[in-house]
Amino acid sequence: MKHLTRCLLILLSLLLLPLGCKKADASKASAEIALTDAALKAAEQPDDNNRVFYEIFVGSFSDSNGDGIGDLRGIINRMDYLNDGDPSSGRSLGVEGLWLTPIFSSPSYHKYDVTDYYAIDPQFGSEDDLKELLTLCHSRDVKVILDLPINHTGRRNEWFKTFLEAHRQGDTQNPYYNFYCWYDGDTASAPAGRSYGQLSGTHHYYECNFSSDMPELNFDNELVRKTVVEIASHYIDLGVDGFRFDAAKYVYFGDHQKSLDFWLWYLGTLRRQKPDLYTVAEVWDSDGITDLYYPATNCFNFTISQASGLIAETAKKGDVNKFTAYIDAYQKHVAAMRDGAAIAPFLTNHDTDRAAGFLTVASGTMQIAANLYILGPGTPFLYYGEELGMRGSRGGANTDANRRLAMLWGDGDTVADPVGTTYSRSNQIETTVRDQIQDPGSLYNYYKKLLMVRRANPEIARGTYTALSVPNSKVGGFASSYNGRTVLVLHNTTITSKTVDLSAVTDLPIDTLKNVIGLEDASLDGTTLTIGAQTSVVIGTK
Asked: Is this model's pTM higher than 0.90 or not?
């Protein structure tokens, strides 16, 4: 396949790079990989979605025109940082997909209150800029998904203005009269649990569960359904590879079955246009609720994310066996719901406090947490700046702007913190992209090598996952088989070296220690694995 040569170069380059962060002996960190026909076949990169995505909060990423606001041209200018198209170069982070937060016309800094879905916000650029970005990304085998918030629009949207005027005039024949969810305050009581704002000049109230500036669309209206299909279709025609859907469980507030029915219809319609459309939804809830939506779309996994999630718990000297058992069971569960369904793990995103607030580089928990979710199945999502250890949290301020701070380039980029930020710069890390690129021991270089390990071992992302139970130890891992080859991945999240007899863990014939990445070294003597503290290994089998 077209990426065979590139993947081969990755394998070769890994032989030359030390993968440990400290203490690891480079001569031992990457054992020799036999480039047999089977190995070459396993290295082929199929055109699927088992890739690492990178979430970009567009207005905070990179500013191309000096106005302090990140834009599409800024992303284009930074593509060599994200993915330079040459996996063997070792010069880029190596992400394989981009998730762009909303880029549509909107009066806010976050753009989730859209005024015109067909117009790129002028602060971010133009449709031509989007086309150029898509072309550049696709030339480097990087997919692009757009954040498409259709649960609600902005109040300044012409649809809402027409809706408001129709209610003021009592014009029930206006096609926009029922475009949004509303109720008559004189004749009915408001449904429980929802938020409403009054339509000025009337006794009617519109539903606005997230903000009075975000009225909720009425998906029982055929015109609404036709409109949201046309919007997505427009961007599919431009070349986007898929969408992230905000607030997916709220399209029918409190009615998961009706919400699921909508997504089944909507995405079924879009997939007739683009069968390989990749979608992921925000269903911010427990697995029991998230599971309800998997028949329609992949969903972010909130159980393992954030400070209280399984990734952080495991990274802090937790039991890896508990983590891998969960991943094994859950990914098999969702895979049974729909062809192509896969988990979407992440540590944090634009709606949560940053990971560097509850994990740290100095303690090693940031690094081993990254190993846990990136060296695994599905589609991991990496939040911009996570690879630097950027900080950002609400703290005592009621603003998400503190979680969406300006990327720290260190090269004169004029991107600034978003409007409403109260986060003190004194709490931010002192290093920048420029600093960390030049530091072999930096978190950035750790993430870069971690992504190379994942891509060089396609069994990890694409294979059949089986959790391994390591008795009487917090060390744990999994076996994954793909295209006739199997690798083992094991993690030691503790702060001491551990020895594991692999013959007591698996019947698979152990072959070579392929890769080591972590804070210490590892060695393999027959079936006896010695794995350093806060370190992960990839082991080949015969």
From this structure: yes
